[in-house]
Write a structure and sequence with these properties.
A hairpin with a 4-residue loop joins β4 and β5. This protein has one domain: Phage tail protein-like (STM4215-like), CATH 3.30.2000.10. The longest helix has 19 residues. With 141 residues, it is of the alpha+beta class. Helices cover 26% and strands 37% of the residues. The radius of gyration is 17 Å and the shape is elongated.
Length: 141
């Protein structure tokens, strides 16, 4: 089995979100940085991992976040509806899927949280948190 790198999983997440055709910007937050002036935007990043308890084979729990940023100058109510629609689309596109990656379990959406709100700019940001278990190569001692 070919080893899957963090960047490979992140690239798949970016591809799936980009295919939604709902965002003006879809990028890796860590590799590309944020463009604060463009909305709606989705930024994907690796949030961390942890080693599982399985002794027969290394299995890591891997977490990725998707920051969804929206802006609507017309009204606060429309801003909320826009943001909710975007985070629903992101969750639907990722949750329960492996995105064609053989070495992972289907993604779980463990949380969607408000991460920023700017009343002056009429912008809002939610963070969608996804986890999966990634199977590592078996290493014989």
């Amino acid at each position: 089995m070919e080893e899957i790198e963090i960047q490979d999983i992140e690239d798949k997440l970016l591809q799936v979100i980009n295919n939604l055709q709902r965002f003006a910007v879809v990028a890796s937050l860590v590799r590309d940085g944020a463009n604060p002036g463009i909305f709606p935007a989705a930024y994907v990043y690796f949030a961390g991992d942890g080693e599982g308890e399985t002794r027969s084979r290394p299995i890591d729990t891997v977490e990725f976040h998707v920051q969804v940023r929206a802006q609507n100058l017309a009204s606060e109510a429309q801003l909320a509806r826009d943001a909710y629609s975007l985070i629903n689309a992101v969750r639907k596109a990722i949750r329960g899927k492996t995105l064609g990656i053989v070495a992972i379990e289907p993604f779980r959406c463990i949380a969607r949280e408000l991460s920023d709100y700017d009343e002056d700019e009429s912008s809002i940001e939610y963070t969608c948190k996804f986890t999966t278990r990634q199977y590592q190569e078996i290493v014989n001692p």
